[in-house]
Design a protein that fits this description.
Distance between the termini: 158 Å
Largest sheet: 2 strands, antiparallel
Radius of gyration: 44 Å
Length: 229
């Protein structure tokens, strides 16, 4: 019971001392001590014979206000692997501020900066980009309506080609991600191909006969004796 009373009395004294400390002071077991300025931390607390000893924050750490802390805060790391980049470098008196890399948007913002980022959504084939992605917002995708298509990279869907309107035949209907496939009308194309196919053998035969005749005439001219004049 005595130990409990001593603990309560000690806690009450510390609480009273903390409450009585002025704005530029902090509470310790010895009483109130002067705080350290921004960019510094407490290396040794004050006592009845000396004031607070302060030391500068090491590189990669900071203190952004008057304080009674025995260590500085660690600076935020802007990890490029997480889609972040340095927007403002860390100093002894202020934390780093991170921004987002191209192709990312901030999913967890803080004080004009960003703690976490995500990649912009990639619209799927059959969708179009309704809202372009920014550093603060993701891309918004919407589905194409009937009779239109998109490969997912366009800001709008295109109408399917109407083959009949351009004098062609519909070979394959369009989908929400591909255009219609058009081709020439079959009968005319088939007749033309058969006509060419039937002519070619005759042309080759005629050329072969002409070559043979020329070879025979040339051989006879070589065998004929020269005439005497």
């Amino acid at each position: 019971m005595i130990y409990l009373l001593l603990f309560v009395c000690n806690f009450t004294d510390n609480a009273t001392a903390s409450a009585n400390c002025r704005p530029a002071e902090y509470s310790t077991e010895e009483g109130c001590c002067p705080t350290c300025p921004p960019g510094m931390y407490v290396s040794r607390h004050c006592n009845q014979s000396r004031s607070t000893s302060c030391a500068s924050c090491k590189e990669g750490t900071f203190q952004d206000g008057d304080n009674g802390r025995e260590q500085c805060f660690s600076c935020q790391h802007c990890d490029a692997g997480l889609g972040l980049k340095v927007k403002k470098s860390c100093s002894s008196t202020s934390d780093a501020v991170c921004g987002v890399l191209d192709g990312f948007f901030c999913s967890d913002s803080n004080g004009g900066g960003c703690r976490a980022a995500q990649t912009h959504t990639v619209c799927s084939p059959g969708q179009y980009i309704d809202q372009t992605g920014t550093a603060d917002k993701d891309i918004e995708c919407l589905h194409c309506t009937d009779g239109t298509f998109s490969n997912g990279t366009s800001s709008s869907c295109q109408n399917h080609t109407k083959c009949e309107s351009v004098g062609l035949k519909l070979m394959k209907p369009g989908t929400d991600s591909t255009d219609s496939e058009c081709g020439e009308h079959g009968p005319h194309r088939g007749l033309e191909r058969r006509h060419v196919t039937g002519i070619m053998p005759g042309v080759i035969l005629v050329m072969a006969l002409m070559a043979l005749i020329i070879a025979i005439i040339h051989r006879k001219d070589k065998k004929r004796p020269p005439s005497n004049r």
